[in-house]
Design a protein that fits this description.
Number of domains: 1
Radius of gyration: 16 Å
Number of helices: 5
Strand content: 15-25%
Largest sheet: 6 strands, mixed
Structural class: alpha/beta
Helix content: 25-40%
CATH architecture: 3-Layer(aba) Sandwich
CATH superfamily: HybD-like
Distance between the termini: 19 Å
Number of strands: 6
CATH topology: Rossmann fold
Strand order of the largest sheet: 1-5-6-4-2-3
């Protein structure tokens, strides 16, 4: 898959605090820089569960994305139909069948250092879901976004269940705005180049 600019001129990682000024635009621009040159399907896979506050970042983001009627993105993983550990393999097979040449962006919550809570990270490469819960799950995406929702602990599953919903919703709103911004840049650019 051919990407937009020369790889040397683009950062491969980005980490921003969710209250930082222009955070959605900065993340959106990062995403845009890595989208393929050729117009292709862009699929967003929002991983997580609606049964755990800390793990709900993906499904909340997916739900926010599907509320926008004019989006060119295909979104998997919402509060109504989450993509989680139990159905991830099946969902990825379905996505591969329906969007064989798609550029995939994965979204998930994660745990980190206490000083990193509230940061949103964007990285090139696949997401490795389930690490906090020691689950071996398939990798997802060409690019991924993670929100650090809480600090790691000896009992990460309890930490995820006791995470404040406020920070999860704030991060989900920022990520969805960033994706809309990258979509605006991408499709305006591809229309202009025709």
């Amino acid at each position: 898959m051919k990407l937009t600019n020369q790889a040397q001129s683009r950062p491969t990682k980005l980490s921003l605090y969710y209250e930082e000024q222009f955070v959605s635009q900065k993340i959106g621009h990062f995403i845009f820089q890595w989208l393929p040159n050729q117009l292709t399907d862009i699929v967003i896979v929002c991983v997580g569960s609606d049964r755990s506050t800390g793990d709900a970042l993906g499904p909340i983001t997916g739900s926010l994305l599907t509320k926008r009627k004019q989006s060119n993105y295909s979104v998997y993983g919402t509060l109504k139909n989450p993509v989680h550990a139990l159905n991830l393999k099946k969902q990825l097979r379905q996505i591969k069948q329906q969007h064989p040449n798609a550029f995939v962006i994965a979204i998930d919550a994660c745990l980190g250092k206490a000083s990193s809570i509230g940061h949103i990270k964007a990285s090139i490469g696949a997401l490795k879901p389930g690490l906090a819960l020691k689950k071996e799950l398939p990798e997802v995406g060409h690019l991924h976004l993670t929100g650090i929702v809480n600090a790691t602990s000896p009992v990460d599953f309890l930490t995820l269940q006791n995470t404040r919903l406020h920070i999860v919703i704030e991060q989900a709103e920022i990520i969805s705005r960033a994706l809309f911004y990258s979509e605006h840049l991408y499709f305006n650019k591809t229309e202009a180049s025709r």
